[in-house]
Amino acid sequence: MEFNTLSRMGLERGLLIRLVRKAVRNGTSMDQEIQVCSRLEQDHYYDAIARRLGLVYLEDLPPDQVFHADKLETQLQTPVMVRLYPPGRPPVTVLTPQAHQLQDLEERLRRFPSLKETLALTRPAAIRTAVWALGSQTRAERASNRLFDVAPLYSARQVMTGRQGFWAGVGTALVLCGLCLSTSIFLPLLHISLSMLYLCALFLRAATLGHQVRYRMQWPEPLLKRPLPTYTVLVALYRERDVVPQLIEALRRLDWPAALLDIKLVCEEDDQDTLNAIEAQPLPPHFEIIRVPPIGPRTKPKALNYALSGARGEFLVIYDAEDRPHPHQLKEAYGRFLASPPHIACLQAPLIIANGHENWISSLFALEYAGLFRGLLPMLGRHGLPLPLGGTSNHFRTAVLREVGAWDPHNVTEDADLGLRLYRAGYRCQTLRCQTLEDAPTKPHIWIGQRSRWFKGWLQTWLIIMRHPLAACRDMGLIAFVVFQLMIGGMLVSSLFHPALILFLAATLWSMTVLSTEELPLREVIFFWVDLMNIFGSYAIFLALGRSAMIPHERRQIGRRYLATPLYWMMTSYAAWKAVLELRTKPFFWNKTPHTPRRVKLNNET
């Protein structure tokens, strides 16, 4: 019936036959295939329907004439109908009829010709554009403040509570008093505390290395023949003009029916260079440009929250502008969601550094990412422990993402925060096998800027959890709470005080050169070996964890640049201290990492 109706509307029969076959193959409807058909201009299609029905076709809708109903935002996800109130004229109901509705609509207009005065037609994109513009300011404010308004204790908008500020002051005063009153007692106590913390973190990494040897993730089984759902892809872009063509090409390669893809390119409204670069590309119909009003914190999570209002997919993934995701990643994620219980709310794809060969910074970054995304995170996911998500390639059940409040716009590592918030809400995260290729910074100042933002966000996340540590421990469970402390708290402290351990080791070595073996206190000997194991053991585990996760080609690219590991760790410590200072002066500042396009095979597999 739809075929005959559309044929009467003037559509070419050969094209209709191809659309029918596509719909059968993809498990979609004719309407869905029509919306993404590159050979069928949406304006021409709906204009032809309007002329056949004797209705007015509106190419664009004036946002100020759209009636702001309570549930108007539903039209962002399923644009069906809006009400226009033109000045000095009767109201008009604007429709985007589906193919199966055309015959009934034609019959009704034949019976009641007067309806033609109150009806008009438009394309779905015109309704979405008008609704995005109509509520943009309110939506942006909600995207910025919703989590703080609903659950302020989970929001980083308040950097520290009064209680945390009090205890931070007490701790600082005790440290200063200890240094002033009895350095000979205080420094050994500090030394012991740092050494024990380092040892615990070292054991966690060693356990990860053992897990990596025992378990090797397998490629996913192909999906059974069953209808696929709509999948939303969100990409936040800011000052990313140069990488836009590469991004569009990578997203085109996703192995998912176009009729079931909802790709949203999310840009700041005043980032005209990036918007011009996107508009210069021949975007397929399933791509949509979202313009975010430049208010509130200018952060990636605020932009993602804004775009989430229009997400149509049952599942959702986020990518960064420079990402080259594996084409089969969405299908692997969907297959894993199907095979997993409902409390598995998020799947993290591994991030692999594609430019590890460029210099020593990118090489060590590649080692670090290999150990994290192909070692530590799979182990945590397998054992049901909290997963601090990476900033991209996170696949979500969209309903759960909305339920937990989505991203925190004031947290500059919104990914780690969201992973822990999901865990506290009773959900779990796991990892995937299909990778996403990324590029590491190659210049020290860019690397330090990016890493200091990460440290600042991890510190924000730690402060949020520690606002009520007992409640957090009850929510997470004791083991998960301890693992969180080692992952986030231990990483922060060890990064901040790594130079102190080196100084302690140097002081002990100096003592050993000045004093004879008999005169050297046993405590100094023990400290020496513990410091030696902490420092060089940390380096060794860092390298072993990363190299064991890599394929031979990656290891050959890195060569002997791993010898710069001590310098890399000192840079990490500098970035950590920079983050502590920034948390006081500019807590929500998003230090933007610039990206450049790369000539790589986007379907490269690792």
TrEMBL record:
It is found in: Membrane. InterPro entries: Glyco_trans_2-like, Glycosyltr_2/OpgH_subfam, Nucleotide-diphossugar_trans. The keyword Transmembrane applies. Residues 317-512 form the Glycosyltransferase 2-like domain. The keyword Membrane applies. It is a multi-pass membrane protein. Keywords: Glycosyltransferase, Membrane, Transferase, Transmembrane, Transmembrane helix. This is Cellulose synthase/poly-beta-1,6-N-acetylglucosamine synthase-like glycosyltransferase. It comes from Rhizobium paknamense.
